[in-house]
Amino acid sequence: MGSLSNESFEEFLDSLKRAGITITREEELRERLAEAQSWRYAFMTLANNGRAIGIRFEDHGASQNLDVVRNAFSAYQFPEKYEAAFEASLRTSH
Questions:
Q1: How far apart are CA 16 and CA 67, in angstroms?
Q2: What does the domain layout of the chain look like in residue ranges?
Q3: SS percent in the chain: helix, strand, coil, step 5
């Protein structure tokens, strides 16, 4: 169960950033994930709807590192549909 602990969202976000994803209002995102009972669900909700409060994920090289992004989603046990939705949101965020 250690890989499902609440602190693992920190490493997950760091892995996305290493892949080339820029997170706007990252501190607020981290606070919200820390408070959430299920950070994975909260992450996807904010990835899909966070623009209204200024939380954005932007591709600054991630499209060239999709394997890194996919590996992060897999390592943190996200359902494949979440990964696909996140990748699609990166393509439409420009």
A1: 11
A2: 2-92
A3: 70, 10, 20
